[in-house]
Amino acid sequence: MQLSESVEWGLHACLALAMMPDGARVPARALAEYHGIKPSYFSKVMQRLVAAGIVQSVEGRSGGLAMAQSAEDVSLLQIVMAIEDHQAFFRCTEIRQKGPCAAASKHYRAPCTIAKIMHQADAEWRRVLAGTSLADLRRSAITQPVPGVHEATQAWLTETGAVRGI
Amino acid sequence: MQLSESVEWGLHACLALAMMPDGARVPARALAEYHGIKPSYFSKVMQRLVAAGIVQSVEGRSGGLAMAQSAEDVSLLQIVMAIEDHQAFFRCTEIRQKGPCAAASKHYRAPCTIAKIMHQADAEWRRVLAGTSLADLRRSAITQPVPGVHEATQAWLTETGAVRGI
């Protein structure tokens, strides 16, 4: 079981948008190119983030994508859940209530211990991601930069005119 | 993203085997029927558990399935990982190293913050399941039984002759 690769794309794209100055907008195509991702796949991921109200898409000649919320207010869990579906990892089909020896359904009001522990594991996974904001990621990116990337990004943005609205 | 439904089957099947008296063996077909699962699908799940050394399959007329290890020694994580693949949930394809602004690969020795947090969430999920043994499940099943199931199971086992080797 694995998350789709678009989770990685969405997280990196949100971080890139959160690094932009206020009011800046980047067309989806430029953001895809910046990450070395095929624009057609990438735009589907961004559409999900727009639908979830995490990213905003501004129409028009000077339009593009921007964060719709403050980076402090967006958790990694929100981004991941917007891209993946929101279901729990574990599927409980209540097989304990099936088969020739199952009791009447009224006897199964207490949750199944197996489902309880599996859901507890899910909750711990979510807790870590809910406890990390996009602003936390941005702080790491600023305080532990990869040498040369910031400069290369600034030059690329100027050269391509990918940032609009500022 | 969801675990396959066979995770639920495998966990319940291991619990059922762990409830059997020492030396008892249950044919895969009977174990599938007990859980109301189609035997052909179910046997594939059991084969994975046998391959992982969690369940043993004894050949012959009085053969069948049994736990290969003490219930104290088998964690829920081992069962789940035997059924699902062993990969981490999060796929990191190092997209930070792609695109027009990436630095030389030697600058990416420190792990990506995004991957680090996603893997930390995975580790928390695994921690919960690694910390729960099949014996813990069995204790819950014994101390909080569903009324009538134990008696129905005993009667079914006697009637069908599903348990062998004791």
Explained architecture:
The structure is a homodimer of 166-residue chains. By secondary structure, chain A is mainly alpha-helical. The first copy, chain A, has helices at 6-18, 28-34, 39-51, 76-83, 113-130, 134-143, 149-160, and strands at residues 55-58, 64-67. Chain A has a domain at 5-88 and 133-160: Orthogonal Bundle (Arc Repressor Mutant, subunit A). Chain A has 7 helices and 2 strands, in the order H-H-H-E-E-H-H-H-H. Chain A has a two-stranded antiparallel ribbon. The longest helix of chain A is centred in the C-terminal third of the chain and has 18 residues, at 113-130. Chain A is elongated. At the A-B interface, helix 1, helix 5, helix 6 and helix 7 of A face helix 1, helix 5, helix 6 and helix 7 of B.
Describe the secondary structure blueprint for this structure.
The structure is a homodimer of 166-residue chains.
Chain A: H1 6-18, H2 28-34, H3 39-51, E1 55-58, E2 64-67, H4 76-83, H5 113-130, H6 134-143, H7 149-160
Antiparallel strand pairs in A: 1-2
Helix pairs in contact in A: 1-3, 1-4, 2-3
CATH superfamily (homologous) name of the domain at 5-88 and 133-160 in chain A: Winged helix-like DNA-binding domain superfamily/Winged helix DNA-binding domain
Question: Which protein chains make the most extensive interface, counting residues with beta carbons within 8 Å of the other chain's beta carbons?
Answer: A-B, 63 and 64 residues
Q: What is the total tally of β strands of chain A?
A: 2
Helix segment tally of chain A:
7
Rounded Rg of chain A? 21 Å
